[in-house]
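In the laboratory, one determines a bound structure by crystallizing the protein with its ligand and collecting diffraction data. In a computational setting the workflow is compressed into a single prediction: the sequence and the ligand go in, and a structural description comes out. We illustrate the idea with 5,10-Methenyltetrahydrofolate.
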Amino acid sequence: MVAEVIYGSELAESLREEMREEVTSLRQQGIVPGLTVVLIGEDPASQSYVRGKQKACDFVGVNSNLIELPSSTSEKELLELIDNLNVDKNVHGILVQLPLPKHINEQIIIEAISPEKDVDGFHPINIGRMIAGKDTFFPCTPFGIITMLKSKNIEIEGKKAVIVGRSNIVGKPVGQLLLNENATVTYCHSRTKNMKQYTIDADILIVAVGKAHFLSGEDIKEGAVVIDVGVNRQENGKLTGDVEFESAKAKAAYITPVPKGVGPMTITMLLHNTIKSARKFHQL
Ligand SMILES: Nc1nc(=O)c2c([nH]1)NC[C@@H]1CN(c3ccc(C(=O)N[C@@H](CCC(=O)O)C(=O)O)cc3)C=[N+]21
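The predicted complex, in structure-token form:
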């Protein structure tokens, strides 16, 4: 089988066009959705993602504000900034770019953001709501993945979904969202023994490990759906995924590329969550 490639970039573009119309109508009612991104330190990869977010906000008409702070910023200073953003009526979404410098406790920061403005969906209240199957801000990458599957009418119910990776921001929540869609979910991770026995059996395989070419065609079942969440910068400066694309494409039914796959959907769901927050704030 030769897989159909799912271009998240194309779906993202059409969703952003719909959102632009929605924001135009909100603006006519005097509502301007606002996202504030806080970037600490000068990691070039982080700066590149943040630029992508700004561009997408501009296109859709979401008011975006970038606060760049030096890596010497203390935890207390960041907490004070978050307190101010939490009560700022023009700010509907707050995103603190992760990872943070070592001297700042990430969990304390995540829990300081108001759950009502937690457009990343990382606050324990929002994670709890998601696990309970309630509507809330879903983490952007997992939500983007579900949206991509649905856009291709790929059936999730009753399918064997295997997640490789168990991070709090991708692996764990994508498994939860797939479970909410009635998949049978298995998590694989660094301590899993004989991982291939699981991956080869997956109908839907989500790979979020952060290691270039961690899996290849031989690990994949004929006709599987392969979602590659890897964002690995190679020595030549190019991005590559966690899956060896060509060999996997030769076996899968669907596969996502890197770049132009999951990444653009992550940003799109961030916009979705920000607009949702603005609507909720204004009781719409
Ligand atoms: N609080 C927080 N929330 C995040 O959502 C978050 C974060 N911290 N820290 C970093 C990661 C990474 N991330 C990406 C988003 C989009 C692309 C993306 O759109 N990539 C393009 C290519 C971009 C390029 O070429 O550099 C693509 O895949 O086509 C990549 C990576 C969000 N993250």
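The chain has two domains: 32-114, 140-262. Keep in mind that any predicted model is a hypothesis to be tested, not a measurement.
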